[in-house]
Amino acid sequence: MAKAAFKITNVPAEIDEISVTLPNQANQFKFDGTIIGNTQEQTLTLTKNEASNEDGSFDWFVDETIVYPFASENTNMPIHVIVKSSDIAYTFKTTSSKSCSKGKRISYKSDWETMKFSNNTHVEITPWTETVEESEFELGKAQ
């Protein structure tokens, strides 16, 4: 097992929820500690600081917690940060050269502006539209 902590600083006040997904963590091992596969996705929910920063932004965090180790050796570990507000969801897909290896303790930290505009981050923005579209579908034949 490994231990990881996450912190994202200077997040705008309108953000309602942040979680971090580790998509390629290993959950099966040999007695000697060798990873033998069966990877799984692990999601950690961050907590918003009660007090705001001077500029009205907030820091979000998850204290050090036990996570499965990263399943692939010698590659960067993928990290997906899912950020939600009332009208939009962002998924920041990035990697870290520091992976959650067995026995390691790692504290990951990012700043909202750095994360949002990083060239190393693939961002998927999923906005909710104000318009609800109507549609119909046929039930078809029973199989």
Protein architecture, described:
The protein is mainly β and 143 residues long. Helix content is 4%, strand content 53%. It has 1 helix and 9 strands; from the N terminus they run ββββββββαβ. The strands form 2 sheets. It has a 5-stranded antiparallel β-sheet with strand order 3-2-6-7-9, with no helix packed on it. Strands 4-5-1-8 form a 4-stranded mixed β-sheet. The radius of gyration is 19 Å and the shape is elongated. It starts with a strand and ends in a 16-residue tail after the last strand.
Q: Report the C-alpha radius of gyration, rounded.
A: 19 Å
The stretches of 5 or more residues where confidence is low (pLDDT under 50) are: none
Q: Strand count, sense and closure of the main sheet?
A: 5 strands, antiparallel
Q: Determine the number of helices (DSSP H or I, runs of at least 4 residues).
A: 1
Strand content: over 45%
What structural class do you assign from the helix and strand content? mainly beta
Helix content: under 10%
Mean pLDDT: 79
Number of strands: 9
Record the strand order, biggest sheet: 3-2-6-7-9
Q: Name the overall outline.
A: elongated
For the terminal residues, how far apart are their CA atoms? 47 Å
- The topology string of helices and strands comes to EEEEEEEEHE
